[in-house]
From TrEMBL:
Residues 7-206 form the Ketoreductase domain. Gene3D superfamilies: NAD(P)-binding Rossmann-like Domain (3.40.50.720). Belongs to the short-chain dehydrogenases/reductases (SDR) family. Keywords: Oxidoreductase. This is 3-oxoacyl-ACP reductase FabG.
Length: 246
């Protein structure tokens, strides 16, 4: 697998979970990969080392997705240090859970800043570097399609917003040959949502396949959208959710 040879990717929130799996998948397909992180410096450096062990250049950059200047700076720094930018994956996010009465406006503002404004700021900065064949791929959530439990309204709101952004940017950037797509993962086994937690069986039961995904299954969908075989796919929402929304 070398379809991304010569390409440079930036994955926000790439130090763990789905983001780390995406970074490794893109590197395995030939891309040089930069990732951003906030607190997990050791884990971010570990992912960058994994990229390098695959024979590619790897870079870990600290940037809080809630800070638009930091996000834009990371995009520009990745393009400068790695010589170009071809692929942006908006993966960084926060996952607030709580009733309407429990989640205050400060939590609302922080969640929107990370989950919506961050991807917008990253896309805005990346558009200055991406050329024909460029890719912007955002990571949404299965709860943007179906919300079966209370306490997820704020999170679902932000992930649903990405669908509108994706369609709008696909129209705006299409004339430049840049595709923009959205992936909605289903329940995925990560540190934040382990497949062995007490409620995991009930969550898995809401999918058609009856199980959690692993990070590599989501990463492979992102890698496809980043590659040449997806060059005519844009403005799309891809549900990699095990049939959650079926």
């Amino acid at each position: 697998m070398n379809e991304l040879h010569g390409k440079v990717a930036l994955v926000t929130g790439g130090s763990r979970g789905i983001g780390a799996a995406i970074a490794r998948a893109l590197a395995a397909r030939g891309a040089d990969v930069a990732i951003t992180y906030v607190n997990s410096e050791d884990r971010a450096n570990e992912v960058a080392c994994d990229v390098k062990e695959r024979g590619r250049r790897g870079l870990a950059l600290r940037a809080d997705a809630a800070d638009p200047a930091a996000v834009a700076g990371a995009v520009d720094e990745a393009a400068e240090l790695l010589g170009r930018l071809d692929i942006l994956v908006n993966n960084a996010g926060v996952f607030p859970v709580g009733a309407l009465s429990e989640l205050d406006i400060a939590t609302f503002d922080r969640t929107v800043a990370v989950n919506v404004r961050g991807p917008y700021a990253a896309a805005r900065a990346a558009a200055r570097h991406l050329g024909d064949g460029g890719r912007i791929i955002s990571i949404g959530s299965n709860v943007a399609e179906r919300v079966p439990f209370p306490g997820l309204a704020l999170y679902a709101l932000t992930k649903t917003a990405l669908a509108g952004m994706t369609r709008g940017l696909a129209r705006e950037l299409g004339p430049q040959g840049i595709t923009v797509n959205l992936v909605h993962p289903g329940p995925t086994d990560t540190d934040a949502n382990p497949a062995d937690q007490p409620q995991a069986q009930a969550i898995a039961g809401l999918t058609a396949l009856g199980r959690y995904a692993d990070g590599d299954e989501i990463a492979s969908v992102v890698a496809f959208l980043a590659g040449p075989d997806a060059r005519y796919v844009t403005g799309a929402t891809v549900n990699a959710d095990g049939g959650w929304a079926a």
